[in-house]
Write a structure and sequence with these properties.
single chain, alpha+beta, 150 residues, 5-stranded mixed sheet
Length: 150
């Protein structure tokens, strides 16, 4: 019995939470320091808004990196390329497959903000609206304390 408990303890010691995974692998997808930012997800009646805000808005270097990254991501998302979120969160991420397949029916726009940037997603397709909301929910869950909703 002691051996089994020790094996279970060792297995759990190596287990990684979703947030730890995101933190550990974010640098491969995002050029900015994820610990210096917060992701804000707002679900709307027509889609949603994803903001990435630098915790210290005086950190101009991080703000620039966030803006450059989100500008590129908005372009990619508009083309149906969600490879970065898939690389970080996994290809089976809720909503991801639908967003890729329905990209032509989703409007994607970028905007710079003084403390970061945002991407706005919109669609009239209820199936894709649900996919956007599921995708936002999965990101909220996996980013943990580094994300919030509004």
């Amino acid at each position: 019995m002691i051996v089994i408990l020790m094996l279970l303890a060792c297995a759990n010691a190596g287990a990684q939470t979703a947030q730890e995974h995101v933190h550990g692998h974010a640098h491969a997808v995002m050029p900015f320091d994820i610990s210096k930012t917060v992701h804000v997800f707002t679900m709307t009646e027509s889609g949603g808004i994803e903001r990435v805000l630098v915790r210290d808005p005086r950190d101009a270097g991080e703000v620039t990196l966030v803006q450059q990254h989100l500008r590129k991501e908005a372009e990619r998302f508009g083309e149906g390329d969600y490879s970065d979120p898939a690389a970080l969160h996994g290809a089976q991420m809720p909503g991801l497959r639908e967003l890729q397949a329905g990209a032509k029916r989703i409007s994607v726009s970028y905007a710079s903000l003084p403390e970061g940037a945002q991407i706005t997603f919109g669609t009239a397709d209820r199936h894709l609206l649900t996919a956007i909301h599921r995708w936002f929910g999965a990101q909220l869950s996996e980013h943990g304390a580094d994300a919030r909703t509004e």
